[in-house]
Design goal:
138 residues, alpha/beta, Rossmann fold, 5-stranded parallel sheet, 5 strands, 16% strand, globular
Length: 138
Amino acid sequence: MHNTDVKKFYIAGSFRYVSLINNLSASLEDLNFTRTYDWAKNKEVDTFRKLQSIANKEYKGISDCDFLIFVFPGGKGANIEFGIATALKKRIYVLDLIDKIHDVKKTCTFYYLDNVCRFDGKIGEFPEFIANQELRHK
């Protein structure tokens, strides 16, 4: 039987944080969430056709998710993914690894949109924080 109540997520971030991103994904999956697309599995990309294929899969992953997780700082792709999620009016959870989002002189205005939830706490508490927030959006 297919469970339509399962919430789906997409994680935007940098390859330099792939281990943290995969651990976060596993923790969310343990809480019965589903990842829409795992871009971290993309290794050597040596053709524009492969880039196009990946771009379409990433876009679909964002389109299909209920919420996006933005691991900050992200690379150029992660920032574009944040923008796509914003345009699609997705809920966005920000995990700030370098403590710049709360610095008014260094942050970005878009991190303060109404659909963006900024997390303050230990990384290990982030999945439970998301689960608690998502209970409000049933």
